Amino acid sequence: MSAVATELRINGDRLARRLADLAEIGPIEGGGSARLALTDADRDGRNLVVSWMEDLDLRVDVDGIGNVVGTWPADRFDPPVLTGSHIDTVATGGRFDGNLGVLAGLEVLETIIESGVQIEHPVAVGFFTNEEGSRFAPDMLGSLVFAGGLPLEEALDTVAIDGAILGDELAHIGYVGGMPCPARPPRAFVELHIEQGPVLESEGVTIGVVTGVQGISWQELTVTGQSNHAGTTPMGMRHDAGHVAAAIVVAVRRLTSEIPGLVGTVGRMDLHPDLVNVVAARARLTVDLRHPDDDTLATAEAQLANRVEELAHAEGVSVVRRVLARFEPVTFDPTVVDLVEDVAHRHGLAVRRMASGAGHDAQMLARVCPAGMIFVPSVGGISHNPAEYTAPADLTAGADVLLQILLHLANPTAAAADDAFLRKSRPASGPDLRRNGGAGSERDAGAPKESGS
Ligand code: GLV
Ligand code: MN
Ligand code: MN
């Protein structure tokens, strides 16, 4: 066995079993799961994963926002090499979004532990509270607090779409812990995730080397008009909030055809009083805009705001805008990106560099430590849907890449000695993980670039 145990492989059956067992919590029609953040189903999912951490004798720490980290060896308190993701889901969740990153991380730790391989730095697997953002905005809230991007008290006051307060719900499910947050930065963070898009499958590529994450803008628009009789109110005398909401939906779609690379979604909309024969007095809708370039995203936001103002003026309604989330594009650490690519090549896998369209906990961890991600294919590019599927061989291939990356990062001295493992022409720039004690690193603040190979 080489210095960094390059022949070691995970147990794919064990990973598949755990994914299936977790999916049984909050089951929904079509084979997926609904575990909205901090619901009883989320608690039950957490309890199951924590029981697996305890079976492996990890030290399980919970912080004040309910993030959970399992560390091995349990008596090591220096910064670990951390992996993980989230186990909360959207209401129409599949089996793999987030869950793969957590359970593959657990599988990687179990493989390391049972192999007896020596590691210089501790390794840890975590799951972060409310990554999805479906119930509480913003998304990636737990990892944002973990990384010091949002004060804990502010996060605890967040109000859910069902009116619940985050801090109350966290206490209700029993996940208010004592580990400080913001947390001490880990040594590095690497997250395995399904792509949730069609690129890898359509190109026959197994491993996506994620270079960064596009910018995300979420807003809620509340349109206030006047309810009136549907039969008697002349069309020219209406102040129809429903009409303006529908026109905003169309404006968002039009914007995406005018600005290359922009994606836009109105995923939520409700009307009040929501009756067949009453002009809507109020409409509330959300707009999700994303783009890899922050200036372009800001331009899209401004153009939409102008269009909304015109529509409101024409109909005689008012519109109030509330920002739910605003995250700049993130570029992952070049050393971690290169490492993902090296390991995947070494495993003989087809590889492609790509930016992520979805938000991920790794983009928050990138604020405080070298971070990166591995993607595996999503069949049909389907996600946030119970039909989400990734072939077992791809799950295993991704987890094996994750294993080698964790071994490499946790064993920097051995890895440095293993010349065959290191890329021959590693650039001199970028953080040197062999010396990184977990402090933040200098990173290119530019937008992630999509560069196929
Ligand atoms: C998280 O799933 C997102 O909305 O990108
Ligand atoms: Mn996810
Ligand atoms: Mn998701």
Name the bound molecules. Answer: glyoxylic acid, manganese (II) ion
Summarize the biggest pleated sheet. 9 strands, mixed
The CATH architecture designation of the largest domain is 3-Layer(aba) Sandwich
Instruction: Bin the strand percentage.
Output: 15-25%
> What radius of gyration results from the CA coordinates?
23 Å
Residues in helices, as a percent range: 25-40%
Supply the helix-strand structural class: alpha/beta
Number of strands: 14
Task: Set down the secondary structure blueprint.
Elements: H1 12-23, H2 40-55, E1 59-62, E2 68-72, E3 81-85, H3 99-115, E4 123-127, H4 141-146, H5 152-156, H6 166-173, E5 188-194, H7 199-203, E6 207-213, E7 215-224, H8 241-258, E8 263-265, E9 269-272, E10 282-291, H9 294-315, E11 318-327, E12 330-331, H10 334-346, E13 351-356, H11 361-365, E14 371-376, H12 392-410, H13 412-417
Helix pairs in contact: 1-3, 3-12, 8-9, 10-12
Bound molecules: glyoxylic acid and manganese (II) ion (2 copies).
Residues 86, 97-98, 131, 193, 360 line the site of one manganese (II) ion.
Give a short synopsis of this structure.
The protein has about 450 residues and is of the alpha/beta class.
